[in-house]
Amino acid sequence: MHRGIMSKKIEMNAGANTRLAHIGNDPHDYFGFVNPPVVHASTVLFPDAETMASRKQRYTYGTRGTPTSDALADAMNELEGAAGTILVPSGLAAVTVPLLAFLSSGDHVLIVDSVYNPTRHFADTMLVRLGVEVTYYDPMVGAGIADLMKSNTKVVLTEAPGSGTFEMQDIPAIVEAAHKGGAVVMLDNTWATPLFFRPLDFGVDISIQAATKYPGGHSDILLGTVSANEATWKQLLACHGALGMCAAPDDVYQVLRGLRTMGVRLERHQESALAIARWLEGRAGVARVLHPALESHPGHAIWKRDFKGASGLFSIVLDGGDAKKAHAFLNALRIFGLGYSWGGYESLAVHVQLDDRQVAHAPQEGPVVRLQIGLENVEDLKADLERGLAAAGH
């Protein structure tokens, strides 16, 4: 949960899969066992009253970290280039905890309008109730975000690419403007993971991940990670401790295990998703494909400049129709499951609801369907999508 201490050093220039296979723990710390122990802990004993009073030992209580949580936090620090990482019970908690850490009554926050919908719900309910002023901005604003900054703007929350419609953002330009105004910049980096984009390298202060997705990778874990730079780490850690929002040891262990194969899984997700996205472009019944790695995408130049790869999540805009057409498409699918999460081994599809947008308006051609491309064979997935398009009227 806190800053990890890794005994076995892996060269930073080693390949991604090499680092993923070894970061986070040293087997020789645990009698040579390859995986770290799963420590189930609440009470931690002290050797004497003086140590208990001073709390001068590494572990003091289960909520403050264990060898298991430190192993995953250390791995994330290595991947993110972070000063420290906290672990929380869900991806949504990974968004809400840092917002609570850096916002107070009377403050102003700028949130990208293409943000993950539960984040918007938290902002419009909890943050507003706590006296925080919330403004949503166009994901294409770039350096123009300087015009939206106020004297009390304390946080700029970004997400790249945007949920559902995959708008790219000029993160370096936004960071420069936000920092000039004294704001902390946070980025939900779940789509890319630190393998394909390292927010802190681009000046972002806090990198957020739903480890439920690619780090977990098997649709059976809820977990979030928040990695901070030196300037924001202590304040983030203090808030995390005050909230007592720690992650369960078995979930932490399974995410650490998932990291070992995340690189090779992402390679497959990327390859399959891009092949399917290119295949869908221009097909009857598809008005547009919203995938940043496609040359046709409005944000492709930014993606190519800043990102090292693309994951397996993108959307299509159906050609005409409404929710009824989207439902016909979804109901015809046999391999794609209908589910809200993503990042697992199985393919998923969902009708994207965009009626909450304020400035980043929904595509007008037809309903938007988000596709999570899993690890199945590409030809089988294409055949399944053909069934969906046929049922939708094409």
- Which structural class do you get from the secondary structure elements? alpha/beta
> Could you describe the largest sheet, including whether it forms a barrel?
7 strands, mixed
Number of helices: 12
Strand content: 5-15%
Structure explained in plain terms:
There is one protein chain. The chain has helices spanning 16-22, 49-54, 67-80, 91-102, 117-129, 171-180, 193-196, 230-243, 249-280, 300-306, 323-331, 378-391, and strands at residues 84-88, 108-112, 133-137, 153-159, 184-188, 206-210, 224-228, 286-290, 313-318, 337-338, 348-351, 368-372. The protein contains twelve helices and twelve strands. The strands form two sheets. Strands 1-7-6-5-4-2-3 form a seven-stranded mixed beta sheet, sandwiched between helices. A five-stranded mixed beta sheet has the order 8-9-12-11-10, covered by helices on one side. Mean pLDDT is 95; it is low at 1-7. It is of the alpha/beta class and 394 residues long. Helices cover 36% and strands 15% of the residues. The N and C termini lie far apart (50 Å). It folds into two domains: 16-258, Type I PLP-dependent aspartate aminotransferase-like (Major domain) (Aspartate Aminotransferase, domain 2); 263-391, Aspartate Aminotransferase, domain 1, CATH 3.90.1150. The radius of gyration is 21 Å and the shape is globular. Helix 1 (16-22) runs antiparallel to helix 9 (249-280), helix 4 (91-102) crosses helix 8 (230-243) and helix 11 (323-331) crosses helix 12 (378-391). Belongs to the trans-sulfuration enzymes family. Keywords: Lyase, Pyridoxal phosphate. Its cofactor is pyridoxal 5'-phosphate. The modification N6-(pyridoxal phosphate)lysine is found at residue 213. Its EC number is 4.4.1.8.
